[in-house]
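Problem 3 from the worked examples.
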Amino acid sequence: MDEAGVKDKQEMQAQRIAILTVATNIHAIRWINALAERGLDLIVITQQPPLPGDYHPSVRFVLLPFRGRLAYLLNALVLPRIFARTGAPLLHVHYAGGYGATVWLSGIRNSLISVWGGDVYDVPGRSALHRRAVCGALEKAALITSTSHVMKAQVERLGVSTPIDVVPFGVDTDRFRPGLHPKTQGRLVIGTVKTLARKYGIDTLIRGFDLALRDSHFRALDPELHLVGGGPAQQEYEQLAVSLDLGDRIRFHGQVRHDQVPAILSGFDIYAAISRDDSESFGVAIIEASACGLPVLVSDAGGLPEVVEDEVTGMIIPRDDPAAVSRALLRLAADPALRKKMGAAGRQRVMRLYEWSACVDAMIAIYTQIIGSGVMTGRQNGFARLVQRATKPRGPLCVPTRFAKGL
């Protein structure tokens, strides 16, 4: 790094950034902790209280006053004042849906907005108002970040003209690596780590696994399907497994902590992600599996093909196609050398494209770029000013102990 780059990095380490996000989301937690570890002074604004022990001790929080279904609207009344009190030159907003609506209604401009998937694929289709809120927030941003190129294209299809940078969710390849857990000898283990919800196509995976079991060579490998994660469709999928007489072949692990995932992945032989919705815009768990040296089987939904090199690091198949799942499982099961080759290639690809430290560097560079350009997050349109004058809170902000100490 040249002298100017070192100076920029040192200045950025002392920089205060305000982040508006769901504080209980694992991806938000990972980003915020990584930035805090680099020395940034972070204040998280949220309506979801963080869980104890989730965050770096230097991170401070401001809890928004409103909760419930209307909170994203009502908190727009107080957000500009809260943000101004942080003293941060930049507001980084995660998810253009709920909190995007808050920012749009608040009249705040020149924020940095990170889109996640459902906020630009699903939310705009709910109503004209939803579309206006999402697009309005994105249009007033100084910059947008997307985790994938396919999601960047989706934002552009919405007619948004704000510049978009692609910054993927990365993987710590020191934590996610092969050999952390011994594989079960004499048994083929296929697995996924996903929320058990319809969009992730777990039912297609179960049905494809059932079809593969009709092959005697596959059955001879004593295969099991491990489903790691909880979710709204868990009972439905448990009933599906029973109806297909797969009770002794499918293991439901429930929700696990993220720090348990590397060891779990190391116990798999094949990783499968058969999502059906395009809002699956980036496959974090897929690149984590690749980093652990696993061959990955994915559908052609959303951004999944972007993180897999077909026939090199894994296989890409049509979504909602149990027969295609079965064929791919049979092929991978029958060829241990192919599994090993794909797994090794996948780890190399992750180290080249998705190393976590490089992704954090990219986000810090964006902060530096926006702040250095002199474009400051600020406010606001006339309507927001009028509303704030009419509803201006009296007294100090509601800030619990350790939450934004010193504001």
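Problem 4, a separate protein:
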Amino acid sequence: ILSKKGVIILPDIYANAGGVTVSYFEWVQNIQGFMWDEEKVNQELKKYMTKAFHNIKNMCQSHDCNLRMGAFTLGVNRVARATILRGWEA
């Protein structure tokens, strides 16, 4: 209903990635023994999430699909590529 009205619906996998990314930032800071201020965290998060959105959007344009399918397709392609690079292909 919302998409038929032109409302952009962000994929759940994309929205969840924001929290996961910030958790990664915290892990890196703990390992390296330093701390970013809130402005730095927000700046880095914006950079990563903007790039991710553009990657999803490009996938959607090249495969003529909605944002959710584009996000899942991008994710599956990345896992498949990593699997092959590690020599785990069937």
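Solution to problem 4. The chain has three helices and no strands. The mean pLDDT is 94.
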